[in-house]
Amino acid sequence: MHVSPAQKVLVIGRTGQVAQALAHAGAGRVVNVGRPELDLRRPASLTGAIDRHAPDVVINAAGFTKVDQAEAEPVEAESLNVDGPRALAIACRSAGIPFIHMSTDCVFDGTLARPYRPDDLTRPLSVYGDSKLRGELAVADALDRHLIVRVSWVFSQYAANFVRTMLALARTREQVTVVSDQIGFPTHAPALASGLLAMADAICSEHFSQWGIYHLAGNGETDRASLARAVFDLSRRHGGSFAQVEGVLTADYPTPASRPLNARLDMSFTQDVFGIKLPRWEDGLAETVPLLVRELAAN
Ligand SMILES: NC(=O)c1ccc[n+]([C@@H]2O[C@H](COP(=O)([O-])OP(=O)(O)OC[C@H]3O[C@@H](n4cnc5c(N)ncnc54)[C@H](OP(=O)(O)O)[C@@H]3O)[C@@H](O)[C@H]2O)c1
User: Fold this and answer.
1) 61 Cβ below 6 A of ligand 1
2) Domains of the chain (ranges plus CATH)?
3) Which residue's alpha carbon is nearest to atom 42 within ligand 1?
4) For the chain, which terminal residue's Cβ has fewer other Cβ atoms within 10 angstroms, N or C?
5) Which pLDDT band, with edges at 50, 70 and 90, does 91 fall under?
6) For residue 2, what pLDDT is reported?
């Protein structure tokens, strides 16, 4: 598909890891807006930002993302993951521009034996997953020209994520316990950001018509405990912290929110329509760990 780049991409969110990755990947054409001037809980601040910046397309990289905390804060999760995205979609409809909204593997229950396709049956196991699913439906209901992009297991040098948490834990512990039966496709946020921007370019073309749900994640599968071991192997080689990883079954490691055991997202539809395939997660990890080792050593 031949496309010309979107001149101005408005990204909702500033300090989040995907928001920061989009800022870097789209330097010069991405404008990030976040709190306090834009708040997903204040619809007027959303329309205000779109009017002020007059973008070609909006990407929502903001939301209530603390999966366990959502169990205790369903009203806040609803406000950020359902009402905010609906208001954004309505504002985009009024402005006549397309909208990319990010969602998650947590809309699935993880019982399928293969990677999930965009049209597979959804059945969230958590308040977070339920709010994200209802956010998807609210966006689709409010605006035809939308993409829902489900992503999974995002990591990077930016903000809070699994890789940073592992390295931080290893500074004070010799052993960490990590679930070994949750499998997924870890996704490097900078690669994800490039993919999202390529999708933004494609949907700004007047010929684009394949609106709807897409999956975008890194290539190659692993489980959480193996991912942690890969983090520590790299960290040790770069002079950083490392720990022994004790694998444990999810059933023996209760958390407030349940997560899908199979979080793998089938990306073939995304590849067919947009020609996008993200690199293997190991490539992103090899880039990320030395950056975090240096950052943690400096603090
Ligand atoms: N991380 C993952 O592994 C993962 C997996 C699947 C799906 N996702 C989805 O991917 C998207 C981005 O995730 P992420 O990991 O980049 O999230 P993150 O690092 O937790 O960042 C969350 C963002 O939400 C913003 N935010 C929070 N409350 C807000 C409010 N009231 N008004 C406006 N903005 C608010 C924060 O903005 P401020 O700058 O204002 O603080 C921040 O930029 C989310 O839709 C998430 O559900 C993530």
Assistant:
1) yes
2) 9-160+185-220+261-279 (3.40.50.720)
3) 16
4) C
5) very high
6) 58
Ligand 1 geometric centre to CA of 174 (Å): 31
Nearest CA to 216 among 236, 193, 239?
193
* pLDDT tens-digit map of 9-54: 999 999 999 999 999 999 999 999 999 999 999 999 999 999 999 9
In the residue annotation, 116 being an active-site residue is answered as no
Angle between helical axes of 84-95 and 127-142 (0-180°, round to 10): 20
Tokens linked to 112: 């399928």
Q: Is 151 in the pocket of ligand 1 (CB under 6 A)?
A: yes
- CA–centroid distance, residue 207 to ligand 1 (Å): 31
State if residue 152 touches ligand 1 by the CB under 6 angstroms criterion.
yes
Name the percent of the chain lying above pLDDT 90: 96
Q: For residue 245, which amino acid is it?
A: V
Question: Ligand 1 pocket, 18 CB below 6 A?
Answer: yes
- Closest-CA residue to 217 (of 133, 123, 117, 122): 117
Question: How many Å lie between the centroid of ligand 1 and the Cα of residue 129?
Answer: 14
Distance 61 CA to ligand 1 centre (A): 6
**Per-chain mean pLDDT for the chain:** 96
Q: Ligand 1, residue 106: give the atom nearest the CA.
A: 6
